[in-house]
User: What shape does this take?
Amino acid sequence: MTRKYFKLAGLAYLASVTFPILLLWLARLYPANVFNGLVMILILAILTGLIFSRVDVTWLILILTTIGAGFLLLGYVVMPVKEKFLLLIAYPIEASLVTVIRQHIIRWSFFTNRNDEIRHYNSLYDRRLKLRTFDSAEKFYQNELHKIEQHPELDLWSNV
Assistant: This one.
């Protein structure tokens, strides 16, 4: 790991901690329903970032931000634009930051075990031949050879 990597990971950690604090500090100026909604959105964003993969978090951000913007901006919600904007930006930014933290700093053991299994399987799998091991390749080519020898009249051939 490079020093630049540690600086970026530390910056992401700092941002993921200070962003909710800043949002909650700003939300104290607004009515209680905005503050409570913002707290729930931040809790949801933190849980989402810790549990789901990057791809899932990206899709959730896209879908939920679109739905939220539809309700808050296009629907009939009597609320100042500043409060709507605060509620809209809370989820995507915090979920993204927590996902980066989870990916680069926190190594959950049950997630990394699964990743190790996937890496091990990929190391045994030959993508060019679409075969997993030497034994399966030998069985495959023996089967091809048997078919060629069994039907000489069909002019069958195979590249090995």
